[in-house]
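Lesson 9: reading folded outputs for more than one chain in a single document. The general rule is that every protein is listed as its sequence immediately followed by its structure tokens, and records are never interleaved. Here is the first one.
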Amino acid sequence: MRKTRVFGVVGVIVGLLVLVLVAFGCGGDDATTTTAGPEVSPTSSATTAPPETTTTTMAEPLEIKVALPGPAAMDHLGALTAWNEALGPEYKVVFINSAGIVESGQAAVTGEADVALAAVALLLNAIDKGATVKAVTEGNGMLWEVSSAVDLTEVKQLDGQPVGNGAEGQLTDALFKASIKKYGIEPVIVRSAQSEDRTSALLNGKLTASVGSGENYLWLESQKPGAFHTLLAYAKEYPEMGGGFYFANADFLADHPDAIQKMVTELIRANRALNDDPVYAAAQAKKYLPELSDEDIQKNVAMYLDRVVFSPTGHMDQATLEFTTNFYKDAGAVPSTIQISDWATPTFVEQALSELGQ
């Protein structure tokens, strides 16, 4: 009797457990069905962790050191515009203001600079001695001229007179040597590497004339209006002549040809924009040459656009390179054995023109 009652109680308990399991585990027709979430470890939070994120680190831009002769000036405006604004995040140009045209060329030769605006004659002589640099584009067109007092009206009047000129091997030296030969004169040459020094000497009456830039003439005019004029403008005397060129150090050129191509293309693009719009050119000059007054900017822009100093083609066609090379040879400024291939690499300009148009 007692066993029967025990088994009965046990049966009731088992039955109740089954009902509980059915109610909570299996549900019924009227039960609400829910979708099970992800399994949660007993030791973890119920909140799903966010997916892991991958951060991409931008590569450091390639630093390109560019040497300019002296402080920033109007003839550097194309480079300042293009290489500060248009190269993109892959490149970072650091401008080095060398003491003068001699020092900027030396910077490219020694590797202190990767690219430099330099005088052709100086670097052709350095190349003849083993320097490994190549011109990749014209930096600025011919801006050099002979300034004198207004009472001198002919170049022949400089015979026997003191004339300021640059150092041996500078472009001004080669230009004036050609003038001496062409006009049959024998002036007294007073040398100074800096055109500003020569211009000051002309203003102070220590020279009869001086070979300098158009900017030097504008300064003379501002100091003593009407007292001086341009006796000889080399842009008109030698329109086929190349001006100042940007030379690249050979190691940098070999390692980073894409960077040089980008620099050349954007320089030509910027020069065209400057030539096409005097208002834009003046705005860029005010941005990068804040020391110039608005009046000086307007005068400089007018002169630069008139003489096409901002080179719109890179000026490295075969005719220009031949004339420039032969000009320096004939002037005795460079060795007679120098060939175009020794100093110029026109392929970057050619590629730029194929993209931008002639």
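And here is the second record, again sequence then tokens.
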Amino acid sequence: MNQLETKSFKDLKLTERQEKEAIYKYDLCDLIDKEIYTNHRSAQINNWKLGALHKEWNDLLQSGCNLVIEAPRDHLKSFFFSECYALEQCHGDEDMSIIIMSASDGLAVKRLDNIKRWAKAPRYRHLLKEQTFKAERKSGLATARQ
């Protein structure tokens, strides 16, 4: 009977890019830290960090179950889920659209503007090439269209 072997990324002989993609697929916190924060001036100046709560959220995302997240203000719920997670989903499917529903038009458009800002990071620039984004406002609903 053969025993199941555990292999590291180095054993798989992946390229650096393949290794990064494999890690990012399962670790949104690492992706945010290395791809978004390193390309965002405010994040660098203010030393933004994600914590244990965000790692727990990442684990819940990986479980594939439906989520309802309740956390106090300023815990980065919208940033984590509505902006970064949505943007990463588009990274894998360039034909995807993002729809943000919010209490007001202004908040929804602000989220989409943030997504566009994060999309300027090198990892996501291919999403911006030869495409224009516009926001449609419909009473608390903002949609990014390509």
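What the second record shows: The first strand starts at residue 98 and ends at 101.
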